[in-house]
Amino acid sequence: MTTTSQSPVESPRARDLGVPFDGTPGPVNAITDVPGVQVGYTTLVSGPDAAGTARTGVTAILPRGRDGVGVPCAAGTFSLNGNGELTGRSWIDEAGMLALPIAITNSHAVGAVHQGVDEWVHETHPEVSAQWMLPVVGETWDGYLNEINGGHVRPEHARAALDAAAGGPIAEGNVGGGTGMNCYAFKGGTGSASRMVATAGGEYTVGVLLQANFGDRDEFRLAGRPLGRESAAPKPIEDDDWFVRDGERTKAAAGAGSVIVIVATDAPLLPGQCEALARRVPLGLARTGTAGSHFSGDIFLAFSTANPGALTSQLGRGANQGLERLDFVPWGAIDPLYRATVEAVEEAVANALVAARDLEGRDGHASYALPHEEVRRAFAER
Questions:
Q1: What pTM did the predictor assign?
Q2: Which residues have a catalytic role annotated?
């Protein structure tokens, strides 16, 4: 079964279960609260059959929407632990800007998705593809549930996710690139959240979307409560000898996996300030318990949709072009954006876990969702 969508199904989110979070969320409490940002998914669930077992997909983000492809955003990246991939980082770090779509998928599908994004840009914006294209494609490993070497994700799935991208409420949990992911040995996946911020004389939004595939069960905390250690949910991904190495079955390293986090804002920022927001992502992840495993690729990207028309880089213009200027929040007024990033990251992880559903995948492997009743009970006692 292949589905392309952006809209959520009716499902509670972490706040609906009584979890207290700091800060003020935007209207839909998602990255799409940042004006212009659009999200789409392709979700692949099939087999087991002759073609194998697919529990995977593609998540697509258009920073300025479909019509804004090629218009740069100030951007910056940060890697907490580099056991992973986020393509396009070298150019972002060099030029301080991002102008193409962002996609997230599984570890072995980066090439197919990169090709699909290139094809989509060439079809929809040939004036952009006439130059070089360095789209951002991030990945986390879904090989516990998904037959990751089965070649299930193809370029057309990336194109379909981009075609499906839209604003408004978005689906979470077992969707897009998050379909086969696990988090804190629960079923993980895609999560999102946002915060409204007043600073430097303006009202701004910070939005986060992440693909949660990280963490050891004993680490997990929700709003300070050690729910991982208290949970009765089975955790076969940690307890079973399912990982095959050198022909022998063994346990996988607890906490292995990865997390890709995308931070968007309409606050006007310098590229270095975007990088500073990306550096705050680990503080939000740490609130949920993780210490950052050696086997987890934890890589983050932040961008600003303000200042359209600045930070351009076009072949053929050369030294004849005029000066460009950027408005930006003064460094002394940036702390509210830092807090918003930390708060939104924490809630996005919780939303991914709450939205996820039990899923069985390859070789009978099963991943079990965080029980909602355990969450309700924990916070009803406060």
A1: 0.97
A2: 258, 296, 298
